[in-house]
């Protein structure tokens, strides 16, 4: 799932300080699960902001609202009445959610309170690990379930490079070489032939904005041939 982290406090303050009525919108999806932007984090940030502005003698109204998922317009509809009372929107949803909020309310300035950092997994409580960069052409079926785009310092599709050294990457002695790990995993699965299949340079699909259509809904969004 998407992983986020809160922006530096002063950066958030700098965005919103000219407004008197600020609505902080959280997201009950990924942002909430990774403890970065659910209702609890919205409440904590709002309390810190209120304290900050009180100390500066600035009287601000900072509201809060958490939608079930900010990346779905149906859930954003419920904000329609709420935002009318505010000058700007701060959001702790991921950057996709923040953009959807900005699209729904184009007349309101919308500011992210978070940075979206990764698609990853929960390695432990509060310890997230990046696993995918959404390249659009997944090869992990051939690489033992290890992503070479995310794990290899050079993002190599054919590896390892000449810098691999006793299982570690040449960029740092503490970073495991992705392609060494791919080799070891494929070897353990008797699938080493996969590493000898040369893959063509990939056509990066994440260099332009993509729309992803679920096959069951293709009739809705794609023209008939
Ligand atoms: S190969 Fe591409 S789609 Fe597959 S895990 Fe890596 S970045 Fe993600
Ligand atoms: S040493 Fe391994 S992980 Fe590092 S750049 Fe080369 S192939 Fe990639």
Summarize the structure.
This protein has helices at 9-16, 30-33, 39-55, 73-76, 80-83, 95-104, 148-151, 178-188, 218-221; strands at 2-6, 21-27, 61-67, 88-91, 110-112, 114-124, 127-132. It is of the alpha/beta class and 225 residues long.
Describe the overall structure.
- The chain is an alpha/beta fold and 225 residues long.
- The chain has two domains: 2-118, Response regulator (Rossmann fold, 3-Layer(aba) Sandwich); 136-225, no CATH class.
- The chain is 29% helix and 19% strand.
- It contains nine helices and seven strands.
- The protein has helices at 9-16, 30-33, 39-55, 73-76, 80-83, 95-104, 148-151, 178-188, 218-221; strands spanning 2-6, 21-27, 61-67, 88-91, 110-112, 114-124, 127-132.
- Helix 6 (95-104) links the parallel strand 4 and strand 5.
- The protein is elongated.
- The relative contact order is 0.12.
- It binds iron/sulfur cluster (2 copies).
- One iron/sulfur cluster binds at residues 132-135, 138-140, 147, 149-150.
């Amino acid at each position: 799932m998407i992983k986020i982290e809160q922006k530096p406090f002063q950066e958030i303050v700098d965005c919103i300080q000219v407004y008197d009525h600020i609505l902080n919108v959280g997201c009950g999806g990924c942002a909430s699960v990774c403890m970065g932007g659910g209702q609890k984090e919205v409440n904590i940030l709002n309390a810190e902001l209120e304290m900050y502005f009180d100390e500066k003698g600035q009287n601000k109204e900072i509201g809060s609202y958490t939608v079930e998922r900010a990346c779905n317009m149906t859930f954003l509809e419920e904000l329609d009445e709420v935002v009318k009372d505010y000058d700007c929107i701060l959001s702790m949803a991921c950057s996709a959610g923040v953009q959807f909020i900005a699209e729904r309310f184009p007349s309101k300035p919308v500011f992210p309170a978070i940075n979206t950092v990764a698609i990853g997994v929960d390695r432990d409580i509060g310890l997230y690990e990046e696993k995918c960069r959404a390249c659009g052409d997944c090869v992990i079926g051939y690489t033992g379930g290890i992503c070479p785009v995310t794990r290899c310092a050079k993002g190599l599709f054919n590896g390892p490079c000449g810098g691999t050294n006793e299982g570690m990457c040449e960029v740092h002695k503490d970073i495991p070489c992705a392609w060494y790990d791919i080799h070891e995993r494929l070897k353990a699965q008797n699938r080493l032939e996969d590493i000898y299949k040369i893959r063509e340079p990939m056509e990066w699909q994440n260099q332009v904005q993509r729309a992803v259509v679920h096959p069951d809904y293709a009739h809705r969004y794609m023209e008939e041939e």
